[in-house]
Write a structure and sequence with these properties.
This protein is an alpha+beta fold and 277 residues long. Helices cover 34% and strands 24% of the residues. The chain has 7 helices and 13 strands. The strands form 4 sheets. It has a 7-stranded mixed beta sheet, sandwiched between helices. Strands 1-2 form a two-stranded antiparallel sheet. Strand 12 and strand 13 form a beta hairpin. Helix 3 crosses helix 6 and helix 3 crosses helix 7. 35% of the residues are buried.
């Protein structure tokens, strides 16, 4: 009976090389285990090296950045304007989102001092921008792409720094839910993921959201207004908004199982381990 499994260090090495499918193998003896480990790591190291060489010599840009460009091009072509706001925001902005010291998400916020924090989401600054820009023109169709930060989010599909792209339209010319579906469709077709599913789920912030799934992976979360949070931002018009996780999209495109391998990292680049040898 096969009773031995890979050692802790061997399992860690397999994870680093993207060999999660091999981790649960079992063996009748130590010699069989060591032989299997050597064979598997040899193949995985070659695959990682080939992937890094392909990036350096051919594609030049990580999948994360390729997807970002595709999304930005699609949204600007569809009439959306990009905005750029700080990564450091006021704690007051967080509280206007209904997240106070007693909220489940509060413990995930990187607090910098008594009044500022690293943004855990893009929505607060987009709310603020919508309120100001509606004085100039309506509808207001804007988006932002950038890093967000949350503590205690590590795991196969989580990381403490992640990249979001949020798009929102204030005072759309048609039904907000219909417009939201158009926005989702525009972006996912641009990144070559036209087959997706929408599912209504409970949300700690919005109460209920429409989550977007591609190949079983949640890649976006969307909502429409009017919403109870709107009054905190002096917003009275209907709106449609969706936030995409770019690392999640990169995971799907590269068929990668660990989010950190396609995230901003000093150990991995575009899904490939930098420690290939």
């Amino acid at each position: 009976m096969d009773s031995l499994e890979f050692t802790r260090n061997q399992k860690q090495r397999l994870k680093e090389l993207g060999g999660e499918d091999f981790i649960d193998r079992r063996f009748p003896s130590e010699s069989d285990r060591e032989k299997s480990f050597d064979e598997v790591t040899l193949v995985l190291e070659r695959q990682n090296k080939d992937g890094l060489l392909r990036l350096l010599r051919t594609t030049r840009r990580p999948t994360l950045r390729q997807i970002e460009r595709e999304m930005v091009d699609a949204l600007t072509s569809a009439g959306f304007t990009e905005v750029v706001t700080p990564s450091i925001i006021s704690k007051e902005f967080i509280k206007r989102m209904g997240i106070t010291e007693t909220h489940n998400l509060w413990k995930q916020i990187f607090l910098l001092d008594g009044s500022r924090c690293l943004r855990p989401m893009l929505a607060p600054s987009l709310y603020h921008a919508m309120r100001e820009l509606r004085r100039v023109s309506r509808p207001v169709s804007i988006f932002e792409v950038g890093s967000c930060f949350r503590k205690e989010s590590k795991g196969r599909q989580h990381t403490e720094e992640f990249t979001m792209l949020n798009a929102v339209e204030l005072a759309p010319e048609r039904n907000a839910l219909e417009r939201l579906r158009e926005m989702i469709d525009t972006v996912l077709k641009a990144v070559r993921m036209p087959n997706y599913e929408l599912q209504r789920v409970e949300s700690d912030v919005y109460g209920e959201t429409i989550d977007v799934f591609v190949e079983g992976v949640e890649v976006a979360s969307a909502a429409t207004g009017p919403h109870r949070l709107d009054r905190n931002w002096e917003i009275v018009e209907p709106w449609a908004g969706v936030g995409f996780g770019l690392e999640r999209l990169a995971m799907v495109r590269k068929q990668c199982k660990i989010l950190g391998h396609v995230s901003r990292s000093v150990t991995h680049l575009d899904g490939f381990s930098l420690g290939v040898m």
